[in-house]
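Lecture notes, continued. The same structure-token format from the folding unit now serves as the input rather than the output. Read the line below as a description of shape only.
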């Protein structure tokens, strides 16, 4: 579980940091600091976050090779730094 995973899962569920904190039994400051990269969490706290998401229906999969699904000639959205 990374801060990016947590933010993405919350977005899928439309959960606030406070709602996640309540669901996993952690403080909202803990969630906020973790998602901002200011705090490293112990494995049992990461497991509690993951379990809260999984109970709500989020499925985490193993990371695979990065790929795009654009047909040749199609254009994707890029960040401003890539323009």
């Amino acid at each position: 579980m990374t801060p990016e995973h947590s933010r993405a899962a919350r977005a899928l569920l439309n959960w606030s940091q406070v709602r996640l904190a309540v669901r996993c039994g952690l403080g909202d400051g803990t969630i906020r600091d973790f998602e901002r990269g200011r705090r490293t969490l112990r494995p049992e706290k990461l497991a509690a976050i993951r379990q809260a998401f999984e109970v709500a229906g989020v499925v985490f999969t193993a990371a695979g090779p990065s790929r795009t699904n654009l047909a040749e000639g199609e254009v994707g959205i890029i960040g401003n730094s890539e323009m």
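Point for the exam: The chain is about 50% helix and 0% strand.
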